[in-house]
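hey so i finally got around to running the thing on that chain from the lab meeting. sorry it took forever, my laptop kept dying and i had to restart like 3 times. anyway pasting the input first so we r on the same page abt which one it is
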Amino acid sequence: MKKKNVALLMAAALLISQNAVYVNAEASGVNAAAQQTETESEEQTAQEIPDADIFDVDFINGTEDKSALTNELGATIGNPVIEMSSELHKNIAKFDGSSAYLYPFSQEKYDLFDENLTMECMVKFNSVPSSGEYEIFSNQQSGGIGIALENGELTFFAHVGGAYRTPKASVRPGQWYHVAGVVEGDSVRLYVNGVLQDEVTAPSAGVHFPSGSGAWNMVLGGDSDGSGGAQFLINADLSFARLYSSALDDEQLLTLSEQSFEGADIEELKPQNVGLGLISSGGTAEEGEWNLNLHANGDQIGSIDRIEYDLVYDPSLLSYEGIQHAMSGVTVTETEEGRLHVVSSAPLSTDDFGTYGTTRLGKLNFKTGDAQGDETTLIRTEKFKAYAGGSDVTAQMETQPSAEKELKIYAKDSLDINGDGIVGAGDVALADDSMKAAAAQQAAIYPYKHVVILTLDGAGQAWNPDAVYYAENNSVIPTKRTDAETMAKRTNTYAMELLNEEFATSYTAQCVSPSISAQNYSSILHGVPWLDVPSEYQVTNDIASAEYYADFGKETSLYSSIFKAVQEAFPERQNAAFAEWTQILNGIIEPDAQVIGKGSASKESFYDVADYIRSNAFKNTAVVYMQSDWLDHVGHSTGYYNDIFWSEAAQYDDFYKAVVDALKETGEYDETLIITNADHGGSGTSHGSSDPSNMDIFIGVGGQTVDSGKRLEGGTNADISPLALAGLRISQPESMTGEVFDESAFLTQEEMSRKNRDVEEITMTRDGSRALISLDNAKNEVRAVDMVVSLNGAEIGDIDAKGGEILRQEVKDGELYLTISYDSQPKEIAGIEFASLGDDQAEVKEIMLGTAEGEEIYPDLLNTQGDLGDDPADPGDGEDPDGSNPGGGEDPDGSRPDDGENPGSGASDDGKDPNGSGDGNAPSGGNGSGTGAGQTTGRAAKTGDGFPAAGAAAGMMCAGAAAAWGLNRKRRNI
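ok and heres what got predicted. didnt touch it at all, straight out
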């Protein structure tokens, strides 16, 4: 094709619609606008166009720079390929999203610019991701210039007048474009195919380039990072890249555009086949929330530029709430209950659905209704239509696409009467007489019903009371200071008291290496250091911006997140995640994990969590994860640990207080384990190095069993999810290698009296073969108790419920599981007669109280020796004159019918419970199937499948109880 016809057709079409145009080599005509442009172009042809004096790489010449500066190729990342283009009939470079060329620059080269410049390139984007940043020709790092895709739009970045100016234009994948960015004084302009698309005016003139030498690289296929490398790599083809020290005018740019298409042979495209996808978790809780990701792609680049279809679902089970992360050009309309109409003019990528950045149309939010038992429902597509240039081309497609998704909605357990997601003493207290025994058999002790994780991006070691990191300016590395003047720059009162007086906190914790966000968030949420997983799972910021977590599409998850672990243990419970940096929700948390993910506006994530806590949904929620991005934004913009950084950090007092106040207002504070940490620190305006200012972080833990004010040691971001799961008494998946890094953070229940809580007190007083368990400081009307007694070799003779009813009395692995209900407030909980004593004293290891309102109280606990007075049933030494001990619980043949395996305690003569509560069923954590010995799943109310969990049964882990951490017995079972 002649160069003028191609270029003029493209210019005219852009003037009319600003859409990409596919040109046939035999196109024969142009419209009046194009003819006028051609005339003007012919008059301009003779005008001299200056040489690209700063940078000029045309791949006809390989990677050689033909400018006057003859910039040398400094480094090659990955494997970019130079090959002949069948469309342009010349050599081009192909970048695959993991490759780039780096050309070192210097301050002397930046000084060649005054207030004007032009960036020019010819590019074909193989995909146009709807979110994230992808650079094709760039040199930026807190200053600089670049041509890129940002959130699905072509963008020219130019740091002019103190900030980035970003004119934009629409582009489509698979189309060659001539692109030019121009800075002329305070004007920043973007041209596509010789036509002005957008202009932004800065408040003043002057281009600011990167100040740090680590960013002095002109990059093709990406952008410079701060440490001599590249970032924001792109999947695109590049014909040439040029940089001028002058501002080219409209006529010069039109001529250059014409020249770039000379000899081009671009065929007209035809309708391609389209694929549709519905991606989400396969289950969710009733009366909760659920996300559904809509996807579409093409089998090849084609002419279809708009699709539409209906999404159909059962409105009695699902109600539509809205869309987030929608691609540009996507609309979703509720046409009637149970039917949505989806329209998309977003480009159809050829990527598979795992590349969500180019294929996901949006994420839908639904609320789930009240299920009648566990229910399965089907979501499906109908009435698909495809269009090209306004014409319906559906019939021209080889196949008609459709998609469907099966969803299981889990009903709350019928024994979870108080609706807190677990079955415990509160449910026993509320249960009617017909259900009390069943509730007792299934009850488990959970000091924490919820975990809230609050991650502060870029906060490093912000709350260390002994020192602050500080840098006078961004050219020096921050160091720790202890002088009063520097320490006073941190003005946080609330956060300092919270982290250092109410919580237990480590300031020797480290982020995982490298000190970059995605690497640390994947470690936080998947419980394994980033460097310890295969390369396929080593998420980077770029990958998280474009691709689902690497377990996507695999039949078996290799590196489950905390949400997958909770999902296995408690599928009937809700989880939630809020993030200002939404790559966490999209590329680090699995798309099929059972969690509602919502993007937060800047500085709003703490308040979103507070609002969620106040909602009805929180009552049944196990884990809430939150990321706040503001301090990292400040660090990248104006520097880490300087005066501005510490001034901005003051806002976090209000942020933390919003969440804590919400928990206290709703009465959930005691039953919530709060974990707060930083993903990394920083220096200058970046991070990623191994310097302590980048690597040092804090990890704080708060909750009713936490030793307030304790200074912890160690910890990494890979320990966050294991710590949370332990608090919920859910065993971590084998893939998680993190751990509860400092067990001294937590108190046993017997140690909790040192916190001086105004709470109920339980005392077990032992006197020889007798013990009395009593209640003091009653604040609530107690109607049930659920306890675990360590027998330490003793054997049970008789138990007096002191006016209550024993619903469960069972011995397993040397521990008594005892559940009692009361019609009125008890003063004495139970009396125990021991048939024989062990080597050590029996003691209450853990106990939970259930109130008349269904609340659960984790009381203070004391095991002590005392004088219980004379035993009317055993005034002597407990022996008959012949030396036998009839009170010892033995039959004449020496067997002990009251040792926890007799029919009187639910067992038949062979020692097995005919109701299934014998061998294999821990009474404080039975699995509901009649087979469990000790709670083998955190899902106490269901079937017992999934990850092993630590409940109140033998060997089960509890954040803060002896059973949990093994602090008294040095026993942990995660």
